[in-house]
Amino acid sequence: MMKNLLIIAFFLLSYSSIIAQIDKEQLALDVSKAESENTEKLKEFIWKRYTTTSVEGEIKSKVTTELSFNESGELQATSLGAESSVKQKRGIRGKMQKNAMEDNAEYVGKALQIAIAYTYMSKGQLLDFFEKATVTEQADVIKIIGTNILLQGDKLTVLLDKETKLYINKKFSSNLDKDIINGEIIYEKFSSGINHVSETILNLPAKKAIINAKNMDYSQRIN
Length: 223
Prior knowledge:
By secondary structure, the chain is an alpha+beta fold. The chain has one domain: outer membrane lipoprotein receptor (LolB), chain A (Clam), CATH 2.50.20. The chain has 4 helices and 10 strands.
């Protein structure tokens, strides 16, 4: 019994020591620098985002968008087209349907903007996030969990590559028009080591909808 207690005490002390050794401010600065350098490399690329919106398991719309970073590091989006599986109604019902579709499209647009806000956080936002967050190391991964990041009551969980300080995964819960929404941002790397968002998944319970946005067809700019 005493031996087991000593083993547990040892692991608890070791765990506390690991947490204490992490300089959260420096880590936030390292992450911000790594992200900035990575964005500079992504400026050389143009890619497409294929966004599918499903309601109760049925695909309702597909939207294709061209994305790129400008010289200031701001994400630029150009719509390339959209498809809808919703059959158009006529008369008053058609007008009501059109209004509902416009409202839903606006809602989906806001949800994607929220996801982008968690995807591309400023240095100040990162410093604030890390300061309030719990940071732990797990093998080659650093895990950061924080609340009240961009909105009161939100939550963000981040997985970082310990060596490169680049993102592996982000999961968040937030609010949209007082509705709870949940999202996951999945990252992948090119063979060159450049990190990029591969897929964003949003769960919108109030609309019984799932948004799946995949970034694909990366091509280098031709100067």
